[in-house]
Amino acid sequence: MRNAYILKGNHVVAALIVLTCTVGGLFIVLGPKATEKNPGVLHVGIRFADERSIEFTRFSLGGPGARIEFINNKGVVLYHYDNLKIGRNLVPIEPDNLPSGRYLARLSADEYKSVDFQVIIEGRMLNPAPSEKFSVNGRVRYNMIGVRFEPLNN
Fold first, then answer.
1. Quick check: is 1 in a domain?
2. What is the mean pLDDT of the chain?
3. What is the torsion angle, in degrees rounded to the nearest 10, for the CA atoms of residue 75, residue 104, residue 152 and residue 41?
4. Cβ–Cβ contacts within 10 Å for residue 33, how many?
5. In CATH, what number is assigned to the domain containing residue 88?
6. pLDDT, tens digit, for every residue of 27-36?
7. Each residue of 61-109: pLDDT tens digit?
């Protein structure tokens, strides 16, 4: 049998320490540059109250599609994102398109009641307004919004 090279424990430990230091150093050096260029991500969960009914089959697999709009205090829509489907959706928050401030986040879908939230945008982060009282159809947390749409005819 040939002599195989067997790694000794101290060599393995030294290699792991060097690898950990190298990767940690890259995170420290490149981390701030990466976060400056990447948008924040808002997680939007969409559900429909009648999604398990026979009538809901008139829509495609993802539902009728929803839209989120960020409206400033003057009533102007500064940013919107369309084609939100049933389940979790990822929406980019770009500081260039949506400056820091207080907004009305309106989620709407055809044939369903819209849901509004007061939110605060700070850079790439979304938070609920401190005084916000949530309806039974929605919740807002740090970079997350969850909505359950009710049909208009109810």
1. no
2. 86
3. 130
4. 9
5. 2.60.40.10
6. 888 776 655 6
7. 888 999 999 999 999 999 999 989 999 999 988 878 888 899 999 999 9
Q: Over range 27-53, report the average pLDDT.
A: 79
**Dihedral angle of Cα 69, 72, 73, 74, to the nearest 10 degrees:** -100
Give CA–CA dist 150/83, Å, rounded. 18
Is residue 144 domain-resident?
A: yes
Whether 9 is in a domain gets the answer: no
| CB-based contacts of 89-92 (< 8 A; 24+ apart in sequence) | 89/43, 89/44, 89/45, 89/46, 90/41, 90/42, 90/43, 90/44, 91/41, 91/42, 91/43, 91/44, 92/39, 92/40, 92/41, 92/42
State which residues form the domain around 91. 40-149
Q: Comparing 35-44, 108-117, 139-148, which segment has the lowest mean pLDDT?
A: 35-44
Q: What is the CA radius of gyration of the chain?
A: 23
Task: Return the bridge partners of 138, or none.
Answer: 147
Structure tokens at 128: 């609920």
**Residue 90 is assigned to a structural domain of this protein:** yes
As for how many domains the chain has, the answer is 1
